[in-house]
Specification:
The structure holds 2 protein chains of 2 kinds. Chain A is α/β, with parallel strands linked by helices. Helix content of chain A is 18%, strand content 23%. In chain A, a hairpin with a 7-residue loop joins β3 and β4 (78-86). Chain B is globular and about 80 Å long. In chain B, α5 packs antiparallel against α6 (188-210). The chains are: A alpha/beta, B alpha+beta.
């Protein structure tokens, strides 16, 4: 490891506190390279984020980045990741919610106003819809663009989605060079 | 910063909108950009104006979208390095380092001390060069044309240094997983040393041109003000956050590449206006000079890449004479580096703020998902808070002081 990365023990305490105060709020915890990721129930994201922001031990006052991932052939279609950072405590935590194509997740803009554009970006590029977002429009792609390009069934080459078999991964672009 | 008491300047601001005044009448919607000299690229703003007062700002992004995150999903980790040059194209070296540190965190490797020191120098050279461009063009936007020529002359010296180091002026692609593309060329450190000797004097000159300049103060003081709590909630980072008095710097809080062993200060402002952001960036350049000076003094010898045939290419002489190395090179080039399954986020303090890369790996040679947390994208969100209620001409100062780079916003 180059230089001391953030010590994972304070976020571990935060997870314990979260379990204690909001029972059932933590479904799964994983740790990789000192980073803690907690899977939380989709329905309770707003409550959990409010708690993590207001709880003095957690004090997650900044949402650094919001990431959306699309999966094929899993129980869920999307993962939304909330990378939280606390300036006073100097620790990070990643929350993860999983949802199906038909489901939406509550917008966290009431907690962090800076979630506005990142949520629009996840909606635009991945296709996750955020319930209660003040202005859920596309932000990077043109307004009339029909696809969500970071979905895994969208080709790097931009082949229209209708021409492909549903559920099949898009041709992986440069990835399969050796099989050509 | 405390020893710079701001002289009282009488306000030139009109009464807030809503007061009975001939200036306020029907609102007008105008379009600014994407081709506008003060938007530094392709930022497009749709403004609603009441006279000269900005009632609302609606940014339209995406004119420079190249789908980098999608492209990354089909590339090996090393193949993506040239794309990072094109994020914040004013500080490509810094992006190279930020990306490669995230990959190295995923792989769990540490590069040798020499490579770390060179990377620190890369980051600081990039910071000075990016801040110089911001200073020159920002001042030009507000009508101070002289500064532009001074900063671009110094920037030219830096580009010569970067060209000597990487072979390219802007598209540097200098880092590789596990190390660097190549070692420092002969005489490079002397070139940097010569720059460090003359540069602080030039900064003082700019300081004397702007800091106490009445026009500059009137155009920037109290303009684009944002409070610390609001800035934090919006996710502002870098000089924009430090301008409101929050001493947050990733080099300090989560040191990488040995930043914890360098002696430098984190300048902060107090008002959170365009003038404070100017002062913070000016001081950051001086601090970068200090870091560069320390890096030059301590530059250790030794290898510039990890010695692992699964990560770095073997020496060319060995490839041509030895079977093992030939196989290793062949495998590395055709198969790429396979990362373990997992997800990492690594942030660095880029010139514009926290530049983070989130990598989700499924154990393949390319990432399953690569997310770029670009500071400009998040910082640009603050434009509404900063510009609404101000004058149209102050919007130019706001955009200049926010310092967005559209290559990084649109990705």
């Amino acid at each position: 490891m180059q230089g001391p990365y953030v010590d994972p023990s304070p976020p571990r305490l935060v997870i314990d506190r979260l379990r204690e105060r909001l029972p059932g709020a933590v479904l799964e915890v994983s740790e990789f390279r000192g980073e803690i990721t907690a899977v939380v129930p989709r329905e309770r994201i707003l409550e959990i984020c409010r708690f993590l922001k207001d709880e003095p031990e957690a004090a997650f006052d900044m949402l650094t980045v919001l990431t959306g991932l699309h999966y094929l052939n899993r129980d869920y279609d999307y993962e939304v990741l909330y990378n939280l950072y606390s300036i006073p405590k100097n620790h990070r935590l990643r929350l993860k919610v999983r949802l199906k194509e038909t489901e939406t997740v509550d917008s966290v803009t009431p907690v962090w106003s800076g979630a506005n554009w990142p949520e629009r970006e996840v909606y635009d590029l991945v296709g996750v819809r955020f319930h209660g977002h003040p202005d859920l429009r596309r932000i990077i792609m043109p307004e009339d663009y029909p696809y969500h390009p970071l979905r895994k069934d969208f080709d790097v080459e931009g082949v229209p989605a209708e021409t492909r078999t549903p559920g099949r991964a898009a041709s992986p672009g440069f990835r399969d060079m050796e099989s050509v | 910063m405390e020893n710079l008491p701001a002289p009282q300047v009488p306000s030139m601001r009109p009464e807030p909108p809503g007061t009975e005044d001939a200036l306020h009448g029907d609102t007008m919607v105008i379009n600014m950009g994407p081709s506008h000299p003060s938007t530094h690229g392709v930022l497009r703003l749709v403004l609603t104006l009441d006279g000269e007062v900005v009632k609302s700002v609606q940014p339209h992004l995406g004119y420079l979208h190249r789908g980098m995150e999608k492209i990354a999903e089909g590339m090996t980790y090393n193949q993506f390095v040239p794309y990072t040059d094109r994020l914040d194209y004013l500080a490509p070296l810094s992006n190279n380092v930020g990306y490669i540190l995230a990959v190295e965190k995923l792989l769990g490797i540490t590069v040798p001390p020499r490579a770390q020191v060179i990377r620190v120098m890369c980051c600081e050279i990039a910071r000075i060069s990016a801040h110089l461009l911001w200073l020159g063009t920002g001042a030009l936007d507000l009508g101070a044309a002289t500064v532009f020529f001074h900063t671009f002359r110094e920037r030219e010296t830096l580009y010569n240094i970067i060209e000597a180091l990487t072979g390219a002026r802007m598209t540097t692609s200098y880092t590789r997983v596990g190390g660097l593309m190549r070692d420092l060329p002969d005489g490079w450190t002397d070139q940097v040393r010569a720059f460090l000797d003359t540069f602080p004097g030039m900064l003082d000159e700019i300081d004397s041109l702007l800091t106490r300049n009445r026009i500059w103060m009137k155009r920037t003081q109290g303009v684009g003000r944002i409070g610390a709590p609001e800035a934090i909630a919006l996710g502002l980072t870098g000089p924009n956050l430090r301008g409101c008095g929050v001493a947050h710097d990733v080099r300090r809080t989560e040191p990488y590449s040995g930043y914890d062993t360098y002696d430098f200060d984190v300048p902060v402002g107090s008002e959170g206006d365009a003038y404070d952001r100017y002062l913070v960036r000016l001081e950051e350049m001086r601090q970068s000079v200090r870091i560069l000076d320390q890096a030059l003094r301590r530059l250790p010898g030794g290898p510039i890449a990890v010695d692992d045939p699964k990560i770095t290419l073997p020496k060319k002489e060995r490839v041509l004479t030895s079977m093992e190395e030939l196989i290793e090179q062949f495998m590395l080039v055709t198969e790429g580096i396979k990362g373990p399954s997992g997800e990492v986020y690594h942030a660095i303090e880029a010139p514009k703020g926290e530049l983070g890369f989130y990598i989700r790996s499924e154990g393949d040679k390319s990432p399953y998902r690569l997310q770029i947390r670009s500071p400009s994208f998040i910082n640009l969100q603050a434009i509404e808070t900063m510009a609404v209620g101000g004058l149209l001409s102050d919007l130019i100062a706001v955009v200049a002081s926010l310092d967005p780079v559209m290559g990084e916003v649109d990705r």
